[in-house]
Amino acid sequence: MKHLKNLILVVATAIILILITATIVESSKGTAFVRQHIYTSAWFVVLWAALAVVAAVYIALRKNKSKSNISTSVFLVHASFLVILLGAFTSWNMAENGTIHLRQNETTSTMKDEEGETKELGFEVSLKNFNVVNYPGTDAPMDYVTTLTAKTKGSAESKNSTERSSAESKSPDNTQEIEVSMNNIGSFNGYRFIQSGYDSDMQGTTLGVYHDPWGIGITYTGYALLFISLIATMVSKKTRMRHLYRKALSLQGAKAWAVTALLAVSSFSTTANAQEMVKIDSDIADDFGKICVLYNSRITPINTVAMSFVTKLCGKPTWDGLSSSEVFAGWIFDVPYWETVKMIEIKEKKAQELLGINGKWASFDDFWDSYNNYKLDAPLKKAYKDGDTKLQKQLRDADEKFNIIRMLYGGEMLKMFPYTDKKGHIQWFAPGQPLGNLKLDEKELVFIKKSMDYLAESIITGDKARAEEIAKKIYSYQHVRGKAVVPSKFSIYTETFYNKTNAQRWPIILYLTLSLVLAIVSTLSLNSGKLKKTRLVSSVLAWVMLIHTTLLLALRWYVSGHLPMSNGYETMQFMAWATLIVTLVMQKRFLPVKQFGPLLSSFALLVAMITDGNPQITQLMPVLQSPLLSVHVMVIMFSYALFGLMALIGLQGLIAHHRKQKEKEEQLAALSQFLLYPAVALIAIGIFIGAIWANVSWGRYWSWDSKETWALITMLIYSAPLHADIKWLRKAQHMHIYMLLAFLSVLMTYFGVNYFLSGMHSYA
């Protein structure tokens, strides 16, 4: 038994190290290389098989030992992983993958496999129609829909009719019409069709073809068994989790004096006063901000565009006491002044040198030399010609900010006049943009061409009433001409309110300050018996943060029209919310969770604010619209919240060890081990929900993407402490060290993959 256990540890460790190495190699050698030489290689499959066989023997022997107390649920958890591995092995051996490309009314009975060889399908399939469905009133694709006609060779009826999707309809002549779209697989005769690409002329489509008659069924059986057994483990009275719960429950926190803090945040600006600024009334700016535009394939109020514009230029949504709408209006109606304002943040020294500025603040005028040449044009061209990636990186940020302003001047941010043709298609035009052959009456034509000029004149002359009237007329015109797609007044108000609320950074700084002070006081006064007031403040803080974060998520959900989990900013906000939920649910029984929950949540909000700076809401890519993706992200983020709490508890445990508080050290270790059960269960369930989503979206449930691989690594690393027979982890100090080090895998999975490794999840 001892030798088998040691062999399992050696093989599992080897697999983890190989997976880590593979993700690093992939970033330099490419996905195809590691897939061929590692992930799908015979030796790697044999290694997994060896782990499965040895683990199966070990589990069976332990289960059969009379003195063993291993529960049925725990046994089934391990058995489910063996079933999943069996499914993966079956797919590896028996599955067929390939692609087909069809033009309109074209028929084929073959596919190209991954090696480029032609293989017979055993039936004929032809393209009846391909269509791109856009979001209403925009050019952003919402879905790609392929309609196929499939026909068997011969008269025999397909034996796999039960596998057909609900979108399929069977006709009397043994021909099926199959509809394939994003997140909707079409199937015929056991073959599944996945939307993969399309021709630029919309007359052709590329489909992934997958045939896996046994592997998917076995794998899904393993998923179901895993889910059931994990739930059983949570509620079973015979598992080690119940013992750890009682041991951790005895942990009593100390009580101490309450701490309050208030952080005043100030900002400064370095504006150049080359000429007098035209004062734009804040009410006029607000009315102007409610006008809708088509920007980034989304119909949104100008206020949202202004937030994005100002934040990208200077790193924050306000400037010199002015709101984003006021600044944006200034760039439109008072160009000579704002081109002299040093509000463009230039981070790289090389870019600062080329622009000839002292410090990091530049004006738009600084980008031009005395001959009106763009200063960064020649250096950028040379950098790309020479392949100087370092110089490219140093100049890219400054160049992007320059081009954002040029986009504004080019009208790309001001497409505010909608026109609906006879077919119901809506076009959007910017002021001054050619209208083509649009048939408009003279009055309407003059309004489109001159309204912005009249608005500018009114603002410059200080005619507030006239300016407000013109802004409201543009607003009303949009709701008449584009009533089918222009957001309601309530939606616009909600979005502008969300922009204003979400732009406030001082609450996050305040939350972080208070939670950090409270956590320090609670930790250092662990045995003082004077923490009643601190616990009260922690509870109040957690509730305030929860209400605030819930409001932000709910507003973003309403404004975007989808669950806010499509990028790093949104997922970090959700992690903060999930952490607070865990904190408030467990605070009465586990004081360390109460102590560290608000702190971890504050850090998550801070990271969201720093890394993405409130990215603009955009339309979801078709593949990201699946509810399975939302569930996958939610479950994973709950697991990350628990892992983060365990890392902070580990830190507190090491402090207790340093202070020779052995009982507290062991109780904290028991709490970490207790939290491990739901945490590992959540990440396992999250991974496999993600696999099901991938199977529905791309036809394969595992592709060895870097994010997938690191999620698996994280699950394997955190699974080790669940096994009580690992002698080294029985010591409380070692458990705390392990929890701190293990959290590095979470950081790598969430952040490191996005910035350092390649893969499909770079958007996260």
Q: Your description of this structure?
A:
This protein is of the alpha+beta class. It has three domains: 97-211, no CATH class; 239-261 and 505-763, no CATH class; 282-485, no CATH class. Helices cover 57% and strands 12% of the residues. The chain has 24 helices and 15 strands. The protein has helices at 2-29, 31-39, 42-64, 72-94, 215-235, 240-249, 282-289, 302-314, 324-333, 335-338, 349-355, 377-386, 389-409, 442-461, 464-481, 489-502, 506-524, 532-560, 568-586, 591-612, 627-658, 662-698, 706-719, 732-756; strands at 96-103, 107-113, 118-134, 141-152, 169-170, 175-181, 186-188, 191-198, 204-211, 292-295, 298-301, 344-345, 361-362, 417-420, 426-429. The chain has a nine-stranded antiparallel beta sheet with strand order 5-6-4-3-2-1-9-8-7, covered by helices on one side. α4 packs antiparallel against α5, α8 (302-314) crosses α9 (324-333) and α20 crosses α21. The longest helix has 37 residues, at 662-698. The radius of gyration is 30 Å and the shape is globular. It starts with a helix and ends in an 8-residue tail after the last helix. Mean pLDDT is 79; it is low at 155-172 and 251-274.
Strand order of the largest sheet: 5-6-4-3-2-1-9-8-7
Average of pLDDT: 79
For the record, give the distance between the C-alpha atoms at the N and C termini, rounded to a whole number. 43 Å
Poorly predicted spans: 155-172, 251-274
Strand tally is: 15
Instruction: Give the DSSP E fraction (strand runs of 2 or more residues).
Output: 5-15%
Write the SSE topology.
Elements: H1 2-29, H2 31-39, H3 42-64, H4 72-94, E1 96-103, E2 107-113, E3 118-134, E4 141-152, E5 169-170, E6 175-181, E7 186-188, E8 191-198, E9 204-211, H5 215-235, H6 240-249, H7 282-289, E10 292-295, E11 298-301, H8 302-314, H9 324-333, H10 335-338, E12 344-345, H11 349-355, E13 361-362, H12 377-386, H13 389-409, E14 417-420, E15 426-429, H14 442-461, H15 464-481, H16 489-502, H17 506-524, H18 532-560, H19 568-586, H20 591-612, H21 627-658, H22 662-698, H23 706-719, H24 732-756
Antiparallel strand pairs: 1-2, 1-9, 2-3, 3-4, 4-6, 5-6, 7-8, 8-9, 10-11, 12-13, 14-15
Helix pairs in contact: 1-2, 1-3, 1-23, 3-4, 4-5, 5-22, 6-22, 7-15, 8-9, 12-13, 14-15, 16-18, 17-18, 17-20, 18-19, 18-20, 19-20, 19-21, 20-21, 21-22, 21-24, 22-23, 22-24, 23-24
